[in-house]
Amino acid sequence: MARAMTPEEVPVRTSMRTTRIALALAAALFGVAPAHAEPTVKIGLIMPYSGQFADPAAQMDNAIKLYMKQNGDTVAGKKIEVIRKDTGGVAPDVAKRLAQELIVRDKVDILAGFVLTPNALAAGDVSAEAKKLMVVMNAATAIITTKSPYMVRTSATVPQLTETFGTWARKSGIKQVYTMVSDYGPGHDAEQGFQRGFKDAGGEVVGSVRFPVANPDFSAFVQRAKDMNPEAIFIFVPGGVQPAAVGKALAERGIDAKKTKVLGMGELTEDEARKSMGDASLGIVTVYHYDHNHDSVLNRGFVKAFNEANAGRNPNIYSVGGYDGMRLIYDALKKTGGKTEGDALVAAAKGMKWESPRGPIGIDPETRDIVQTVYIRRVEKVGGQLLNVEFDRIENVKDPFKARTTR
Amino acid sequence: MATVSLEALRGPHGYLRAQTRWRRTEIAFWLATLLPFLLFPSYLQLASQIAITALFAVSLDLILGYAGIVSLGHAAFFGLGAYAAGLISKFGWGEPLSGLVLASTLAGVAGYGASVVVVRFRHLALIMITLGMGLLLHEAANSASWLTGGADGLQGVRIRPLLELFSFDLWGRAAYAYALLMLFLTFLVARRVINSPFGLSLRGIRENAVRMPALGAPSRAHVRKVYTIAAVMAGMAGALLAQTTSTVSLEVLSFQRSADVLVILILGGAGRLYGGILGAILYMVARDQFSGINPQYWYFWIGLLLIAVVLFLPNGILGGLGRAAAWWRRVSP
Amino acid sequence: MLGSFVGVLFDGFAYGMLLFLLSVGLSVTLGMMNFVNLAHCSFAMLGGYVTVTLMDRLGWPFFATLPVAFLAAAAASAALERALFRPLYRASDLDQCLLTIGIVFVSVAGAAYVYGTVQQPVQLPDYLRGAVTFGSLRFPVYRLFLIGAALVVTVVLVAALEHTRFGARVRAAVDNQRMARGLGIDVDGVFAVTFALGSGLAGLGGALAIEIVGLDPSFAFTYLIYVIIVVSVGGLASIGGSFVAATLLGISDMAGKYYVPQLGAFLIYLVMVGLLMWRPTGLFGRR
Q1: Is 60 exceeded by the pLDDT of residue A18?
Q2: Chain B residue with Cα closest to A184
Q3: How far apart, in whole angstroms, are the C-alpha atoms of residue C287 and residue C282?
Q4: Is the Cβ pair C101, B306 closer than 8 Å?
Q5: What are the residues facing B89 on neighbouring strands?
Q6: Contacts 24+ apart (CB under 8 A), B125-128
């Protein structure tokens, strides 16, 4: 180990990988960058590809691949190269290290992905220090985008959805509500957002409960809610295993969405959850920014292409976040003529407006956060299929949290 | 081992003196830890996290490998150190060295408190009680989100440059130097501890917990002492992670972290002091490489690695290497 | 008030039975055979996937999938036992721990590769949905079914292990291998069958649990803590102990969540730590 190998000394039989490591080593030692045939733009994707949150990451990644397939991998004369890194779940220390490594070792120009809030917050420091554009494609805690002036978001914020929903619920005639949320950051945000919107519009919160994040059985909490006999129940649980579990508990306890109104964040009636719940999901009203059942030409094309690429699976919010994130990157690069400096890219992204599969969206030039239509949907049976059917919408919603704090 | 029986002839003090002597391989190893600065300057952030994990694993080795206490809740002390270091800086004291000392002391105090309970139990009950205490602390940190920031993680951690000279930058030079230095210093302490009469009686407790008090060794007091030392070291590892990354999240207290460090220590070889360090290097480098190639399914390759180590190198890598060396000595006199 | 109390007791008992079904196999492999089998939930996950595949893709009725889930997990574990576990029966606990964690990693990645990371839909037949009303009380049908299944498993298992010739061989082989061999018992064979039994029970438990707890590749990790808690509180090697422990944990967890929801996340761990401090070898443990 006294002396590093130069590329010429690498034995012939070594694999490509060893060769690459050796090249990287040599590059690092002598400061020689391997010559590229054409100019590239490198995007580092930091996501929980493995572990508990692997599914959101997979759905997002599939949409990113789809976007690149549909739009080519060359923008403004530069080839787009994507490097994928796994955080394995909630791990801000790992996310931050990966962001650092992507920038100093892989020389990426843009950081993107970010399913989870703590990871996005940690990488935000790196984006600010290295002055690189960072596109948050899912993590939804309101404060994230304040971490770096180079950060933009293409998903949604929790208050953007829940506060709007609270106001809507009161206006739709509901007077009393009981709230049930998971006992962790996003759950608390959802609870606060909904209660604020609902109370400010003159509604009354008759009670609330928070359930543990790791909670295999919801019957005790649902029973409690039932014993309160409220007019409506608002529910937030993280996507994945829990929505179906809550839905089944509601049905078992005999909470009928026709008598007690069941309100929730869109996670509650995701595809897999509806399928597991069956008819018990009928009548549940949820708020979200995207559903594959959204009716527009653009969305039908997107869903069809996504289905074809992914064995019939439907896109969800993670997919549309990733898809729009790529769209933002492509358009920003076109605007800057391929320049990749953080300042230029973020300036190009500010105020951008386009038609997404979810409807018209834009980037707020002041907060760099997303502005979009918020949809109110109800589970209905359409042609024998249980679907989220949009029946009301609130247009041009900004993040209410930052609207309050910036003024 | 033939050498041991010879040393034993010179009495226990001779044995201990022989053990404390630095071997050439050890010196070479520690010199090699400086190589990343020259050879892999863009891997220093990873190297710093390996050093931190190694420190955490050495701390677990003190109680598991030497006192026979299997803990599935060791992340409790790691997390306490991390949160303490983070909170100290959040409330305006960003100087890292004093923050590190304070945070590890706090973890040590908690460790002493826990040791009073832990020392009363053995076997499965001990494992499960450490697990339970770890999980309770994790839930408590989630509940106390006014203090810890809950699931979003602690915000506002600001660490001053080390000695007001070296800031924790993107390259991770200061991070690795800091973590490596702390690993080396605590390793010296750990080495001193286990090669003392105290360390010897710990091994006695591991082998036969009933017999040691009969020989006049205060075994509960010994266990309390080593548990506290281990907690200080675990807290230091946590504080280092918080300081070098300016992030603290609930994950530092998680069961996953306790389980990972246990896997790392067993992989390297428990009861050998260097086992934790080698395990950390192998596990984290393998993870980094596998997940770089295959971000979705790298668990598969790590799993195969663990299975292979158990089948071909029982008692961890160092255990396997030790046997190989012994065999080599036999066949080549 | 009384009504809700009865309801909480029932829910807690049903939840306990769910925990029991998931963990009873482990009191066989870890408890009786003393093998640190952290891959227990991987076998449960296998059972779950078998049931989902047969139901969702091939249209089998739910009940027909249960024996297949048992057999699939048993067969998989028999193969692994022969190849990996048998050489390690006498190895240290730590090596067994590392090996089985390795198997968990491989199984998690394997499940993600084959089935994707998506949450699997579990749709039960209508006669297992809904609830039976009794006065003002509602008893969900599936929970009644879980309780029944748990009771059947307990009775069959206790009878098989305590009152049959096979059970006597198992106990002999576990208690003293050399003596058992001396008496002409095929210890290797007995161990293989016992291990397959434990894992088969895991597969069955997984198949029964997914309706309530759901199924995705992280299943093998997520429920590991719960099953170890049940087995350690019940006492190793005691089927009855696991039953009682699961009941206690289920009811206290459910009652805590109902009456003091602020403590919801803490309660199951508090009860475990408390019980183990009181009885370090578990409620019915012998060693």
Answers
A1: no
A2: B151
A3: 9
A4: yes
A5: none
A6: B125/C232, B125/C276, B125/C277, B125/C280, B125/C281, B125/C282, B126/B69, B126/B70, B126/B71, B127/B70, B127/B71, B127/B72, B127/C232, B128/B72, B128/C228, B128/C229, B128/C232, B128/C233, B128/C272, B128/C273, B128/C276
ipTM: 0.90
The 10s digit of each residue's pLDDT in B177-210 is: 999 999 999 999 999 888 888 887 888 878 777 7
Query: Which domains occur in chain A, in start order?
Result: 37-156+295-368 (3.40.50.2300), 158-288+374-405 (3.40.50.2300)
Length of chain B equals 333
- Please give, rounded to a whole number of angstroms, the shortest distance from the CA of A108 to a CA of chain B: 13
Give residue A258's Cα distance to chain centre: 31
* Pick among 1.20.58, 3.30.70, 1.10.3470, 1.10.20: CATH of C2-278: 1.10.3470
Counting as low any pLDDT under 50, the low residues of chain C are: none
User: CA distances (Å), C245 to each of A403, B214, B308, C240, in order?
Assistant: 52, 36, 36, 8
Q: Taking a C-beta distance cutoff of 8 angstroms, is the pair A234, A179 a contact?
A: yes
Closest by CA position to B35, among listed A25, A104, A170, A223: A25
Nearest to C112 by CA among A49, A216, B308: A49
Torsion of CA A321, A326, A329, A330, to 10 degrees: -140
Region class of B101: left (phi > 0), else alpha (psi between -120 and 50), else beta? alpha
| Window 207-226 of B, Cβ < 8 Å to A | none
pLDDT exceeds cutoff 80 at A129 = yes
A289 phi and psi, to 5 degrees? -105, -10
- A365-390 tens-digit pLDDT: 989 999 999 999 999 999 888 999 99
β A133-136/C137-140 pair status = unpaired
CA distance A155 to A370: 7
- Alpha helices (runs of H) in C164-284, residue ranges in sequence order: 165-175, 177-182, 187-213, 219-222, 224-234, 239-259, 267-278
B314: which 2 tokens? Answer: 């029982």
Structure confidence by residue, pLDDT tens digits, A54-89: 999 999 999 999 999 999 999 988 999 999 999 988
CB proximity B249 to A under 8 Å: yes
Q: Phi first, then psi: what are they for B42, rounded to 5°?
A: -95, 5
- Of residues A35 and B22, more confidence is placed in B22
Contacts of C258 (CB under 8 A, 6+ apart): A220, A221, A223, A224, C4, C8
Structure tokens at C77: 């574990």
A102 interfacial to chain B (CB closer than 8 Å) = no
- Among A53, A90, A178, A241, pick the best mutation site for testing chain C contact (most C Cβ within 10 A): A241
Note whether B74 and B60 are within 8 A (CB).
Answer: yes
CA-CA distance, A18 to A32, in Å (whole number)?
18
